[in-house]
Amino acid sequence: MRGTRTETAMKTEEPLSATVEEYLETVYNLSMEDEVVIGARLAEKFRVAPPTVTEMLKRLVRDGYIAMDNKRQVTLTEAGIQAAEAVLRRHRLTERFLVDMLGMQWHQVHEEACRLEHFISGAVEARVIAALHNPTTCPHGNPIPGSVVDARNYLKDQGAIRLSSVSKGEIVSILCISEVVEDEEALILYLHEKGLTPETQLTVLTQSGGSGSEQDENFIVEVANRQLCINKAAAAKIWVKR
Fold it and tell me: How far, in Å, CA of 74 to CA of 37, rounded?
């Protein structure tokens, strides 16, 4: 029995694989934005076959990180939330370090942070926090777990809405860019080039419908006396405050 307990303890202390951490991060981020999380959505996100996602979800249920209801919708358990927030904390701190200390542009750092987040020790994390004076958000405006009161409900607490739901004539400021699409380099570069970054104030001037697709529905906004045209699909990824 003593040997069994030791083996169990050793198993518990083993670090999660990068793939497991990425799944937990993604479920957390989708849930934070009130999106329904199902296997098909994860397969689309990770660009893998549905059976691959199914096997991973079974493993995560077995290990106590997620639960699934009779509609196959995925939610994080308390253990899953803690694991997701731990890796998101390292990820967002790394992004902040790359921008604030190394001078990288905000649209360049997501992939670098994805590579580094799995290897940062607690000691390094603490030094980064001290060097950056305990930042509360990443360069994209998303909350750093542990540095804000409630990272999971940050959008609700801030009264944030998607830019795509803002009415003509409203003045808003950008709170953050959806973490769910930070790995879409073309979109992040698109937002960067248009100056649609956190804390930017803008006014929605018009909405013009196209053929019915979000890609064809355009927003015309005014930013610093410049008029910009962005599509509704991109606008849905920008969280703003009135």
Answer: 5
DSSP the chain: -HHHHHHHHHHHHSPPPHHHHHHHHHHHHHHHTT----HHHHHHHHT--HHHHHHHHHHHHHTTSEEE-TT--EEE-HHHHHHHHHHHHHHHHHHHHHHHTT---GGGHHHHHHHHTTS--HHHHHHHHHHTT--SB-TTS-B-BTTBS-GGGHHHHTT-EEGGGPPTT-EEEEEEE-GGGTT-HHHHHHHHHTT--TT-EEEEEEEE--SSSGGG-EEEEEETTEEEEEEHHHHTTEEEE-
CB 109 within 8 A of CB 139: yes
**Domains recognised in the chain with CATH numbers:** 16-156 (1.10.10.10), 161-241 (2.30.30.90)
Q: Parallel, antiparallel, or unpaired for β 218-223 and 66-68?
A: unpaired
Lowest mean pLDDT among 42-51, 133-142, 226-235: 226-235
CA 98 to chain centre: 17
b or e along 199-238 (b: 16 or more beta carbons within 10 Å of the residue's beta carbon)?
ebebebeebeeeeeeeeebbbebebeeeebebbbebbbbb
pLDDT at 217: 66
* Band (209; pLDDT cuts 50, 70, 90): low
| For range 163-188, the mean pLDDT | 90
Query: Could you read off the pLDDT of 75-95 as tens digits, one per residue?
Result: 999 999 999 999 999 999 999
